[in-house]
Amino acid sequence: MTTAKLELVNVEKTYQSKTSSTLALTGIDLTVRPQEFVSIIGQSGCGKTTLLRILSGLIKPTNGEVKAEGRSLWQGESLDKETVSKLGLVFQEANLFPWYNVEDNIALPLKLRGIDSQTRRQRAHALCELVGLTGFEKSYPRELSGGMRQRAAIARALSYRPSILLMDEPFGALDALTRDKMNLELQSIAEATEATVVLVTHSINEAVFLADRVVLLSPRPGRIRSVTDVPFARPRQVDLQTLPEFQDIARELRHQLDENPDG
Hints:
Layout: E1 6-16, E2 21-32, E3 37-41, H1 48-56, E4 63-68, E5 71-72, E6 74-75, E7 78-79, H2 81-84, E8 87-90, H3 102-112, H4 117-131, H5 146-158, E9 164-168, H6 176-193, E10 196-200, H7 204-210, E11 213-217, E12 224-229, H8 244-258
Parallel strand pairs: 3-10, 3-11, 8-9, 9-10
Antiparallel strand pairs: 1-2, 1-4, 4-5, 6-7, 11-12
Helix pairs in contact: 3-4, 3-5, 4-5, 7-8
């Protein structure tokens, strides 16, 4: 039996304020297999980003358990450092340090881990080649396009070789053509690194194009409403989205999104 790469077991999250409480997620059970690509979609406010932040250890679930490679992410109130080291995180904003060049931004997690400068530089150059930034190692974020900044952010997340990549709308701010190109790049990067990927996105087409499975969350409180298998072989090309089989899957997911089971 294949060990699950990620597991969410009966995960619930309630946000408390002085005057009220908000149930954001409830009853989340999900298993992600090694080297699987899972997309998470849902209406705005359904808890997609909360779910990703719980997976990454940025916030602790109110109830339930999160495991990476069979090991709990939390030990009581403390994060398990060994487990967290398996996770790489990419946000919608690249969040590069403007005073560092591309090479130094990519290598920063290694510097914080005490890795020597020569090893850091070699790793940064290898990752620049992987994400298509060769020749831009000495460039600064202000000199890069939005897509190039996101490539650098992905490379930085991969610098310490995490086996799991968690991505929150990484291409949401990009134009359609750049987004298509980045989706192809992400597919290649996931294959080359053999990473397990969980992607939060608002784009149904992006979710279906990239994923092995698409998880759809219900309106708040977020529950897993459906899990859809995506049967297309890899590597996938952009024109896959024109096929009737692709459009059928996207149409059904859009129909589910538009429905309100509680309404």
